[in-house]
Structure formats: C-alpha cells, structure tokens
Write a structure and sequence with these properties.
By secondary structure, the protein is an alpha+beta fold. It contains five helices and five strands.
Length: 220
C-alpha cells in the first residue's frame, strides 16, 4: 500500500492549521488517516511545527512519500538529514558515532539560526509595539492639548460675557474731564525810562533875579 505523509486541514477560514498525518495515497485529503504525527500552524511567527521526530523518520525510512510542503517541514526539523546520515552508515561511509556527531552539529547550527531569526522577529515586534505606543501617545497628547485649548477659549469667552454683563448692570459714571486752565500770559511791566539828567551847566539860575526884584519892591 502506497502511503503519503501530508497535511490535513483544520481550523476556520483565514485561520487554518494542519495535522501532519500518514495516510493512504488514495484517501481523500480530509479522509481517514493511518497515523497522526503532529501539527503545523502557519499563523504564528515563526510558524509552529511540532511532530514526533522518530515516527516521522520511521515512515520516511519505510518509503512513505511526503508532499512538497511536508518535505520542507521534515527538512526544517532535520528528519531528511538524519535519514541521509543513516543511509551513509548503512553504506559504510562513516560510523554511527560519526553520524550522530554530524547530526548534533547540524542541530546546533540550525538551532542557532532559528534562535537568531526568532530574536530578530521579537526585536522587530518590540520595535513596532514601541513605535505604535509612541504614535498613540502623541495622538493622545495632541487631543488633550486641543481639548485644553478649546476649554481655555470657552472659559475666556465666558469671562468676557460675564464682564460685559456686569458692565451693563453697573454702568460707571462718566468722568468729567476738566479742561486745563489756560495759563494767562505774564506780561512784563515796561521798564520806566529814566529821564536823562540835565547837565548842570545848562540850568539857568533864575533864583537870584527874583530875589533882586523883591528887594527893589521893598525899597520903594
């Protein structure tokens, strides 16, 4: 009986996962299977691949033909490489111990690559999360600032309306502005002109003549 190692679809639309099964090559995809080896979930990052390594190796050795996708999964986990090494032991290319050492080295190298890839994915996810958080925080801060500005405008408008209402209810008396008193121009009094003194030589001496006239009248 020809057997195949293939995937059997489960799950729901846009979120399917698969069982890794051994089935008759003539059976339908979702039909009866001989053995379920594990499952494969491509929805995680990295994808989840979990199956019984020894049973998968056994079925490969007895001639079960994996589909292309299953072959890639088996190679990823090292089943195909282990089968190749075991064939080399049977042919005498190297001992079983050497085959085990080679396979262990392969696993360590593969594990390092997987871990490096996983770390890169985790870092990318962490960076994306941090970036998303920063963007969301910036949006939230912007909304808060806009709300505070709007609230400040509303409060200022209310204060202005309140001030106008108070001014209308209590009008202030009009201030009478007194015109500044015009300053009377101070007129300076004209300086009295001092008459020039008549020179002494020019004054006629009339007093002695009068005295002589009076003496004549007395003698008469």
């Amino acid at each position: 009986m020809a057997t195949k190692i293939r995937l059997q679809r489960h799950g729901k639309k846009r979120y399917a996962y698969y069982h890794l099964v051994v089935a008759d090559a003539r059976a339908k995809r979702d039909g009866k299977n001989i053995e379920r080896l594990g499952f494969y979930n491509p929805n995680t990052n990295p994808a989840t691949i979990d199956f019984d390594f020894d049973r998968a190796l056994h079925w490969v050795k007895v001639g079960a033909q994996p589909t292309d996708t299953v072959r890639a999964l088996l190679s990823y986990k090292g089943v195909m490489h282990k089968n190749h090494l075991d064939k080399g032991v049977l042919k005498g290319a190297f001992t079983q111990e050497e085959a085990e050492k080679k396979f262990e080295d392969w696993l360590n190298e593969k594990g390092g690559k997987i871990q490096s890839k996983t770390d890169g994915i985790n870092k990318a996810q962490a960076d994306a999360t941090a970036k998303s958080f920063a963007e969301e925080k910036a949006k939230a801060d912007s909304k808060i600032a806009a709300a505070n500005a709007k609230l400040a405008e509303i409060l200022a408008a209310e204060e202005a309306l309140k001030a106008e209402a108070e001014a209308a209810a209590n009008p202030a008396p009009e201030a009478v502005e007194e015109a500044p008193a015009a300053e009377a121009p101070v007129e300076e009094a004209p300086v009295a002109e001092v008459p020039e003194e008549t020179p002494v030589a020019e004054v006629k001496e009339e007093a002695p003549a009068a005295e002589a006239k009076e003496e004549t009248k007395a003698a008469e």
